[in-house]
User: What shape does this take?
Amino acid sequence: MSYELHHGDCLAVMPTFANESYDCILTDPPYNHINRETGGLREIDKGVADSEPIDIQQCAKEFYRIAKHSIVVFCGDTQFSEWVNAFNALGATTRIGVWHKTNPSPMNGQKLYLSAMALCVVARKPKAYFNGHCIHALWTGASERVEGFDCPKPVWLMEELVNTLVPPDGSVL
Assistant: This one.
């Protein structure tokens, strides 16, 4: 197994990659709604965490160009349809992916249902590799805590996605 680190703004770095240079892209871009007005529900200020607006159309186009097989984009509920529409317009087949968190944050649990789901769009290019048979895109398991990162995705979930969507000895961006 080998690793390569690319440092920089993804929109500046991605154009340097060749077409279909990675088997799968697995990403969790900013949702741009953590600090939105919540009618008094949110009692903490996360500062600028996750507040960077992104150009979903531009990102989807670059992801589709760079990926050989599949693209997984974790996203907020307000972004979901835009990601689906962008990938479908490029010729991908899409599925809704849902991670059901078995240990969601209890924040505001006395006022509202707990936020126990994370959404992702799974976009598949024609003839993409898939190491699954009649499996669903609903994953249930615990969150992991990582110091300095508010919304980490668990290693077990990343392993599941890579094992299903990436060919043996394949590459992931």
The CA atoms of residues 48 and 125 lie 34 Å apart.
